[in-house]
Amino acid sequence: MAPRTLLQFFHWYYPADGSLWNEVAKASCDLAAMGVTDVWLPPAYKGASGQQSVGYDSYDLFDLGEFDQKGAIATRYGDRTGFEGATKALRDAGIGVILDVVFNHKIGADEIEPVRVRRTNPDDRNQIEDEAFEAHAWTRFTFLGRQGQYSEFVWDSRCFTGVDHVEQPDEDGVFRLVNEYGDGEWHDEVDGERQL
What we know:
- This protein is an alpha+beta fold and 196 residues long.
- The chain has two domains: 6-99, Transcription Regulator spoIIAA (2-Layer Sandwich); 111-191, Elongation Factor Tu (Ef-tu), domain 3 (Beta Barrel), CATH 2.40.30.
- It contains three helices and ten strands; from the N terminus they run βαβββαββββββα.
- The chain has helices at residues 20-34, 80-92, 188-191, and strands at 6-8, 38-41, 46-47, 58-60, 96-99, 111-121, 124-128, 133-140, 162-166, 171-177.
- The strands form three sheets. Strands 6, 7, 8, 9 and 10 form a five-stranded antiparallel β-sheet that branches. Strands 1-2-5 form a three-stranded parallel β-sheet, with helices on one face. A two-stranded antiparallel ribbon has the order 3-4.
- Strand 9 (162-166) and strand 10 form a beta hairpin.
- Helix 1 (20-34) packs parallel to helix 2 (80-92).
């Protein structure tokens, strides 16, 4: 395999002014001349914090800065047109594009739902209380700004195994949802999350 040089083209404190995609496009030829072979870009989709989001608070993976959701159309880094221009400029310069995407959680639901949950010990998630109770949780994602474009799928409490906040009672913690996926143990990758 030929040697590769990866450049992370973002940082946590990048300004929320929508300028990153344009900056990437302008720098693409210079990066190639320096020997950069691949560029790592931040999450391009809409986060729960709208234009303030750095992208790790995943809300809508289909909104790349195209829809008016979470208080903005553009993401922190720019709009869809800018994103497409940036990735094209990188590819045209012979640079590979690596996109950061968070698939394993969502935040910023649009609606609250009644749910059944079991409390879990946050220090050892294998310790789940036997008794379930009724509560409400922000688990329904309808993406009203997108109105079904690209995907009509609506996320709801059946799509998740746990939440970190419930209402009625109002409580923060780790809660195992009781749903068709069962109310038993966590998936192998989750149940090992213990404080040492």
